[in-house]
Amino acid sequence: MPAGREAKVRVSCFQENLSKGLSIVGRAVSSRSTLPVLGNILLEAKDDKLRLAATNLEIGVNCWIGARIEDEGAITVPARLLTEFVNSLPPDKIEMELSVRTQTLHLRCGNFDVNIKGIDAQEFPVIPTVDNGDGPEETAEALEGRTI
């Protein structure tokens, strides 16, 4: 990257998909915690998918949605703020741009535009995974109506 040029992560996805994913992972967000990052949702852009993740250190939920990824990267943003904003948007394409230097997520959809200050993704706890495939597996649609 040329000197003086800021690293930016660019992602686009549909409002309906992002809203659905946020409602799924939002169930694991900690409402009261001494760690501010537990009130956030991790957004990780990688391999043409946007990973959404949340944890309260007892449970963790991951959800992947299809997205157009121009540059890979990650950030955590306040769950409630992001979810309420995305749910208020029209069903259209959402353009997201992350400024790595300032840890700010810029969202644009139609005439709507917002900047959300985030926390570095490095501070987000690792959610354990089952490597041998013996764990339970459900689709997002099957889990959508259930509460955890």
TrEMBL record:
Q: InterPro entries this protein is in?
A: DNA_clamp_sf, DNA_polIII_beta, DNA_polIII_beta_N
Q: Which family does it belong to?
A: Belongs to the beta sliding clamp family.
Q: What is this protein called?
A: DNA polymerase III subunit beta
- Principal localisation: cytoplasm
- Species lineage: Bacteria, Bacillati, Chloroflexota, Caldilineae, Caldilineales
Q: Which residues form the DNA polymerase III beta sliding clamp N-terminal domain?
A: 11-128
The keyword Signal appears for this protein = no
- Localization in the cell: Cytoplasm
Among the GO molecular function terms of this UniProt record, one is:
DNA binding
**A GO term from the CC aspect:** cytoplasm
Q: Which UniProt keywords apply?
A: Cytoplasm, DNA replication, DNA-binding, DNA-directed DNA polymerase, Nucleotidyltransferase, Transferase
The keyword Ion transport is annotated on this UniProt entry: no
